[in-house]
Amino acid sequence: MSIYHLRCERVEERKEKKIKDHQETVSKQISENRSKKLNTLRAEKSKLLSNILIFLFNFLYSVCECNGHARQCRFNMELFKLSGRVSGGVCIGCRHATTGRNCHYCREGFSRDPTKPITHRKACKHLKPLGQQSQDDETFNKV
């Protein structure tokens, strides 16, 4: 074999090595890009799943904050957003003379009894018309 042929073989070997190295580099870059994209997608998926779970938790567990005065409520997305994604529940059919989104006010004609918590059945007491005496007042007057 001549020197010329040996040089040509070496040049070919170098070209093949460069091509192989380039292919490996490109392959690594593609792999890294795929990995980055997958990580980004995983992060986005995780964030979305987290938001869904927070929404479901709040919807299922925090939607009805009716202080024990209502058996039903409905979900209102606007209220949920306005509350900072804490609660979007609106109580339906407040009982025990209560009213309001969370059955936390006394209906007209009733006043809040400060000696009882809002969760008590008798937290709102009936207002007496002016001049009307209660049985307690009559008992006091008899003594």
In short:
This protein is α+β, with helices and mostly antiparallel strands. Helices cover 51% and strands 13% of the residues. The chain has 2 domains: 61 residues; 55 residues, Tie2 ligand-binding domain fold.
Features:
two-stranded antiparallel ribbon, 143 residues, laminin egf-like domain, two-stranded antiparallel sheet, signal, disordered C terminus, Tie2 ligand-binding domain fold, Laminin/Netrin_ECM, alpha+beta, 3 helices
Number of domains: 2
Mean pLDDT: 83
Spell the H/E element sequence.
HEHEEEEEH
Helix content: 40-55%
Separation of termini?
A: 136 Å
By helix and strand content, what is the structural category? alpha+beta
Residue stretches low in confidence (pLDDT < 50, at least 5 long) are 137-143
Shape: rod-shaped
Strand order of the largest sheet: 1-2
Task: Characterize the biggest β-sheet.
Answer: 2 strands, antiparallel
Strand content: 5-15%
How many beta-strand elements?
6
Number of helices: 3
Cα-atom radius of gyration: 38 Å
Note the quaternary state here.
single chain
Domain Laminin EGF-like: 64-124
Protein name: CLUMA_CG010066, isoform A
Keywords: Disulfide bond, Glycoprotein, Laminin EGF-like domain, Repeat, Signal
Pfam family, one: EGF_LMN_ATRN
Can you describe this structure?
Keywords: Disulfide bond, Glycoprotein, Laminin EGF-like domain, Repeat, Signal. By secondary structure, this protein is α+β, with helices and mostly antiparallel strands. The strands form three sheets. The protein has a two-stranded antiparallel sheet. A two-stranded antiparallel sheet has the order 3-4. The protein has a two-stranded antiparallel sheet with strand order 5-6. Helices cover 51% and strands 13% of the residues. It is rod-shaped, with a radius of gyration of 38 Å. The protein has two domains: 1-61; 72-126, Tie2 ligand-binding domain superfamily (Tie2 ligand-binding domain fold).
